[in-house]
Amino acid sequence: MFIDTFIGHLKNEKRYSQHTLRAYANDLRAFETFVAGLDGALSIAEADADIVRLWVAGLMENGAAPSSVCRRLSALRSFFAFLRREGDAELNPALAVRGPKCRRVLPAFIKEEEMDELIDEISFGTGFDACRDRAVILCFYETGIRLSELVGLDVGSLDLRSMCLKVLGKRNRERVVPFVAELKGEFEFYMAERAKVVQPGEKALFVTSKGERVTQSQVYRIVKKRLARVSTLEKRSPHVLRHSFATAMLNNEAELLAVKELLGHKRLSTTEIYTHLTFEELKRFYDKAHPRAGSN
Question: Cβ distance 209 to 129 under 8 Å?
Fold first, then answer.
């Protein structure tokens, strides 16, 4: 009952995605099962800090990654905070429990010269699919939008005159993302080709050759296929292109706050990871080039 009420709150008031809702529900039900295994008469709302510590210790002993444990502990903290506001719990026991130290993993990205090669030198082929694929790649790389945001774009989201996209992001937050003349030209060419395959009234901006809105899995395959021409990264996804956009912007002296708004991040700390990433790239160049870098 408590978990269902909390998930309903996240869905209806916080507007969390289905993916996030499933993750929260799975984590909380796993904890509920753990509590019941300790004492069948104990409800999840009555769990104390010692029980939370036992749960965290069990996760670690069973080989759960530190990042996974931290995520589950975060879900538990949010859950108990909600129970306290609703008057169903006196304390938030998860606040008294420290998670394992998580090593921050820097996001993978495609180098600027590799993207230049893909866009300027490599042919995408001919026909509608090739035209759409190039527009998709450019849209990701030149706006930094998410996969779900690109798939959800409608024709009405595109303003060629003002050169901007109206994007519906996480939790239904709308933002306006500008783009450059190169992408405007690509959109104009793509829209002319799109008109040949869609039925009148079709709202979707990006469509298949049958005139239907593309799915996330279809776009993922498009990106993976096209990036394979220039990158040996194991992960070649739309999110890697989002990382590549942010990294390229900061490497070319964009303001951090501006990149935060373009990406649709709620917190500046989320965007700051790209400053660490660009520093790591700079450090690699230093270690490679400085005559004293390898002397210690």
Answer: yes
Scanning the structure block, which residue is given the tokens 């935060």?
260
- Angle, vertex CA 168, rays to CA 135 and CA 15, nearest 5: 140
Predicted TM-score of the model (pTM): 0.69
Q: Calculate the alpha carbon distances from 16 to 12, 52, 68, 263, 284 in Å.
A: 8, 25, 19, 17, 38
Each residue's pLDDT tens digit, 35-52: 999 988 889 999 999 999
Which tens digit of pLDDT belongs to each residue from 221-243? 999 999 999 998 888 999 999 99
Residues 218 and 207: their CA atoms lie apart, in Å, by 10
Write down the H helix ranges in 87-144.
112-120, 128-143
Residues whose CB is less than 8 angstroms from the CB of residue 280 and which lie 6 or more positions away in sequence, other chains included: 106
What is the set of active-site residues?
Answer: 146, 170, 239, 242, 265, 274
141 vs 242: CA distance, rounded Å: 6
Total Cβ atoms within 10 A of residue 57: 12
Distances (CA, A) of 41 to 36, 37, 45, 64, 270: 7, 10, 12, 28, 41
